[in-house]
Design goal:
The chain is α/β, with parallel strands linked by helices and 656 residues long. It has 26 helices and 16 strands. The chain folds into 3 domains: 10-215; 232-382, Alpha-Beta Plaits; 403-651, EAL domain (TIM Barrel, Alpha-Beta Barrel). β4 and β5 (338-339) form a beta hairpin.
Length: 656
C-alpha cells in the first residue's frame, strides 16, 4: 500500500497535467526558447566527445550514433523554433511538454548508454573526457529544464546515477572524486530546480490573478454593470474607431441616441430597484433588435446610444428607429410592477451631415432634443434645417451672454379671466426680448437656448422683478401668474433666489401663482417637490402648467402642494368639434374639482370653444378670445369689467 502510494506520488511528480492551464502555457513559452539551446549544448558536447574517440572506437559509436543523434536534435530544434511565436491551446501545450518529458527520458538513456559504451576504447585521459562530458551535459540539461521539474529530475537521475555508480567503482581516485562531486552538485541543482519551480508556478499564478483583475477592471471600465452593455467611455472609443473605418472605406455611418420618456416617474414611484430592472430590460430589448451592423451602448441614466455601420438610406434608418420606439412603448413586465414608457431617438449620419466624430454625436443629440420638444416617442433624423437652427441658437446664446438684459428684457401680460363673471382674475407674465443686433426674439427661441446654456436663472430674476413691480400697482384681487423653468426649481439655490426676489418686492405672496411644467417636475421630482413646498410655505400658489402632456402619475400629482392646474391648449383647440378633446377636457375639469384645485383652460380662441367650456363648468380661461398679451401701459384700460365685453364686440365687428 505504501509502495503504491509512493508510485502515485512519483507519477504525479513527473507527469504533465492540465490542472493549471496558465502554468502550462507559461512553461511552453519558456521552453520554446530554452529547449533549442539545450539540444545545441548536447550536440556540441557530444561531437566534442565523439571526435576524441574517432580513431579508437568503432565507426558505429564514433560517427553513426552522433550523426543520428544530430538528426534527431535538429528536428527537435526546428520544431521548437517554429513554435516560438505560436500561442498554443492548453491541450497542445500539454502534449508538447509531455513529449519533452518523453524525449528527456530517451535522451538521458541514450547519452548515458552511448558515453559509457565508449569507455573501453579510451585511455585514462579519454575516459576523463567521458566523465567530463556526462557531468557537464547533465548539469546543462538540468539548467535548461529548470521550469519543467519532471524532465529535469528524470535527466538528472538517468544520467547521474549510472555515472556516479560507474565511476565510483572505477578504482581511480580522480574519477571517484568527480563522481562524488557530480552527485553533490546535481543534488544541489535539483533542490534549486524544486525551489525555482515553486517560485515559477507562484509567479505564474500571481500573473494570472493580476491579468484576471486587470481584465475585470477593463471590463468594468468599459461596460455598464447594470445592463452589461458597453458604457459611455467604450461607446466613444468604438465610435472613433468605426468613424475612421467608415471614412477609409467610404461607407455611411449613423449614430442614434435614445432617451426614455417617462422613466423618472417609474423610478420615483416604484424605487431604484424597479428602475434598474427596467433599464436592464430596455438594454436586452435593444440588443434583441440590433443587427450585425449595430452596436448598442448605455451612456448613463436612461440614455442609450446606437452605432450603425454601413447603414442604409434615411428612410431605412427612420424605419429602424420607429421599430425601436414601437417596441419601447410595449409594457415591461417586471418582478414588482408592470410599467409602460416610451423612447425618443435622434439620428445623425456621416458623411452627409457630419464631418467628424464630435459633430456626429452632437447632431444626433440635437435631433433627439428636437424630437422630444416636438413629438416625443418617435425617431428623428438630423437635417439641414437643424443646421440653420443650431446656427441661430448659437447666435442667440452669444447675444444673451453679451446682452444688457435689464434693459433689453420686457414683460407683457395675458389676462386670466373668470368665465362666468368675465372679470380678470390674474395676468400671466410673458417675457419679451428686443436685442439691438437680433431684434425681437420670440420666447420660443431664446428661452430654450437660455435653459440649455444655463442662463435662464438670470432671466427669471430680471423678468420676475419687473413683473412684481408692475403687479404691485394692480388691485389687490388681481393676481400674477409667473412661469418657472426646470433650473429654477431643480437647482440647489433656485428656490432661494426666487423667495428672496418675492420678499424684496413687498407684494403679498398670496397674489402670486408660480407655474411649473410636468417636464420640469419630472427632471428631479424630489428636489422639485422640496422647492415647491418652500414656495408654497411662503404663501404662493402653485400651478401645474400644460397638464396632461407630461408623464406625471396621479400619485405624484397628489404628493405636490398644488393649488391649480392649467389645461394645455392642445386639448382645447376645436373642442366644440373634436369629441376626443371634449372628453379629455371634461375629465380634467372633473379631476380638478375632485382634488379641490383651481383650473385654468389655456388657448381659448373662439366663441364656440368658450361656450363649450361654459357648458362643462369651466372656471378660468385665457387665450386670444379674451385678449392677446398686452403691455404694462395697457393694463389699466383693460381691467374694468366692461373691457372684456368691448373687446369681444370689437372682434365681432371686425369679423363682419
Amino acid at each position: 500500500m505504501l509502495l503504491k502510494s509512493l508510485l502515485v506520488r512519483v507519477r504525479r511528480f513527473i507527469s504533465v497535467t492540465d490542472e493549471n492551464p496558465e502554468l502550462l502555457k507559461a512553461q511552453f513559452e519558456v521552453f520554446s526558447s530554452q529547449v533549442p539551446l539545450m539540444y545545441a549544448i548536447m550536440l556540441i558536447s557530444a561531437w566534442a566527445l565523439a571526435i576524441t574517440f574517432i580513431d579508437s572506437a568503432p565507426p558505429l559509436l564514433a560517427i553513426y550514433v552522433p550523426v543520428f543523434f544530430t538528426l534527431v536534435c535538429c528536428i527537435r530544434i526546428i520544431g521548437w523554433l517554429r513554435s516560438r511565436h505560436i500561442v498554443p491551446t492548453i491541450e497542445a501545450a500539454r502534449k508538447a511538454l509531455t513529449r519533452t518529458n518523453l524525449f528527456a527520458l530517451l535522451i538521458g538513456v541514450a547519452i548515458t548508454a552511448w558515453s559509457l559504451s565508449l569507455y573501453p576504447y579510451g585511455d585514462p585521459y579519454m575516459r576523463g573526457n567521458i566523465a567530463f562530458f556526462m557531468a557537464i551535459t547533465g548539469v546543462g540539461v538540468i539548467i535548461c529544464l529548470l521550469q519543467l521539474r519532471s524532465a529535469a529530475f528524470m535527466v538528472a537521475i538517468i544520467i547521474n546515477i549510472p555515472f556516479v555508480l560507474y565511476f565510483s567503482f572505477s578504482g581511480i581516485p580522480s574519477f571517484i572524486g568527480m563522481a562524488i562531486n557530480t552527485f553533490l552538485v546535481s543534488g544541489a541543482l535539483l533542490m534549486v530546480v524544486a525551489v525555482q519551480f515553486r517560485h515559477f508556478a507562484a509567479a505564474v499564478d500571481a500573473r494570472t490573478r493580476l491579468e484576471t483583475v486587470n481584465e475585470e477592471n477593463f471590463r468594468l471600465a468599459n461596460h455598464d454593470s447594470l445592463t452589461g452593455l458597453t458604457n459611455r467611455r467604450k461607446f466613444f472609443y468604438n465610435l472613433t474607431e468605426t468613424f475612421y473605418d467608415a471614412r477609409a472605406k467610404g461607407q455611411r455611418l449613423a449614430v442614434g441616441i435614445i432617451d426614455l420618456d417617462g422613466f423618472k416617474p417609474v423610478n420615483d414611484l416604484y424605487g431604484h430597484v424597479v428602475g434598474d430592472s427596467l433599464l436592464g430590460d430596455v438594454g436586452r430589448l435593444l440588443v434583441s433588435l440590433a443587427d450585425r451592423n449595430m452596436l448598442v451602448s448605455r451612456l448613463g441614466g436612461d440614455e442609450f446610444a446606437l452605432i450603425i455601420r454601413d447603414c442604409g438610406s434615411d428612410s431605412d434608418l427612420l424605419a429602424k428607429g420607429e421599430q425601436i420606439c414601437t417596441a419601447l412603448r410595449s409594457p415591461f413586465v417586471l418582478a414588482d410592477a408592470t410599467v409602460q414608457i416610451s423612447g425618443s431617438i435622434g439620428f445623425s449620419t456621416f458623411p452627409h451631415l457630419a464631418d467628424n466624430v464630435h459633430e456626429l454625436y452632437e447632431r444626433a443629440d440635437y435631433a433627439l432634443y428636437h424630437g422630444k420638444r416636438t413629438n416625443r416617442g418617435h425617431a428623428f433624423l438630423f437635417s439641414i434645417d437643424h443646421v440653420v437652427e443650431i446656427e441661430q441658437s448659437s447666435r442667440i446664446e452669444q447675444a444673451l451672454r453679451n446682452a444688457d438684459l435689464d434693459r433689453e428684457l420686457s414683460v407683457v401680460y395675458q389676462p386670466i379671466v373668470d368665465i362666468k363673471t368675465r372679470k380678470t382674475r390674474a395676468f400671466e407674465a410673458l417675457a419679451r426680448w428686443n436685442n439691438p443686433v437680433l431684434g425681437n426674439v420670440p420666447p420660443a427661441l431664446f428661452i430654450p437656448v437660455a435653459e440649455r446654456a444655463g442662463l435662464v436663472g438670470g432671466l427669471t430674476r430680471i423678468i420676475l422683478e419687473k413683473a412684481l413691480v408692475t403687479a404691485a400697482s394692480w388691485p389687490e384681487d388681481v393676481g400674477l401668474s409667473f412661469n418657472l423653468s426646470t433650473q429654477d426649481i431643480c437647482s440647489p439655490d433656485g428656490a432661494v433666489r426666487i423667495v428672496g426676489t418675492i420678499m424684496a418686492s413687498g407684494i403679498d405672496p398670496q397674489r402670486l401663482d408660480l407655474e411649473i411644467t410636468e417636464t420640469a417636475m419630472m427632471y428631479d421630482f424630489a428636489r422639485a417637490k422640496t422647492a415647491i413646498e418652500t414656495l408654497k410655505t411662503l404663501g404662493c400658489g402653485i400651478a401645474l402648467d400644460d397638464f396632461g402632456t407630461g408623464y406625471s402619475s396621479l400619485s405624484q400629482l397628489h404628493a405636490l402642494p398644488l393649488t391649480k392646474i392649467k389645461i394645455d391648449r392642445s386639448f382645447v383647440s376645436d373642442i366644440d368639434k373634436n369629441p376626443a378633446s371634449y372628453k379629455i377636457v371634461k375629465s380634467l375639469l372633473a379631476l380638478s374639482r375632485d382634488m379641490g384645485l383651481g383650473c385654468v383652460v389655456e388657448g381659448v380662441e373662439t366663441r364656440e370653444e368658450m361656450d363649450t367650456l361654459v357648458s362643462l363648468g369651466g372656471q378660468l380661461a385665457q387665450g386670444y378670445y379674451y385678449s392677446h398679451a398686452i403691455s404694462e401701459a395697457e393694463i389699466d384700460a383693460f381691467l374694468p369689467n366692461t373691457v372684456v365685453a368691448i373687446s369681444a364686440e370689437k372682434r365681432t365687428v371686425a369679423a363682419q
